[in-house]
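Following up on my earlier message about FNR. Here are the inputs again, as you asked, copied directly from the submission form:
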Amino acid sequence: MPHIAVIVGSLRRESINRKLAQALARLAGSQCRFDLLELGDIPLYNEDLFDPEPPAPVQRMKAAVTEADAVLFVTPEYNRSFTPAVKNVLDWGSRPYGKSCWPGKPAAIVGASPGAIGTAVAQSHLRHVLVGLGMALMGQPEIYLTFKPDMIDAEHNVVDDRTRQLLGNHLAAFLAWIERHRPG
Ligand code: FNR
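Thanks, got it. Here's what our run produced:
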């Protein structure tokens, strides 16, 4: 069963993007294992903090990514880009030089916002960065979700049939993508 490290780009408790990640985990059932990484205690990137090792939360995050078969980014859009929490994790994971945890790792992006464009610009920026980091990024399908308050229930079920189908299609494509990029 593939193991997917999930990077949710929002740190707030009631994050709609965390709800989306939990709904995807629910939808996946036993097809894969989702591991939502804890990012709230990771400091802002500062090379001085390698003393001589990076801080423990950074080491924990990097080990989780290294052990995972793939990474799913679930990001909000902040001012027409992805969030600083995502960028911070990407920067930490890319250092020290030559010891990045990202190259070759299968990846996909989803995101939700209350607005009409549903994180399209954030995802476009993030694609650029992930390709630069050498990740094996899935190009299609894309999901730009305009989040409605009743879209996901308290048990993380997707209430609306069409949204559930969209998410299910994305998940199936990502699982096939992970399989295709399995080492060896
Ligand atoms: C936003 N929001 C937002 N939404 C959007 O569609 N495009 C944008 O550019 C922005 N910009 C933005 C900047 C900042 C600093 C904040 C805090 C918010 C609104 C955003 O989509 C909304 O707050 C989501 O609920 C954030 O995601 P989480 O935290 O609920 O997962």
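One observation from looking it over: The chain has a mean pLDDT of 97. Hope that helps, and feel free to reply on this thread.
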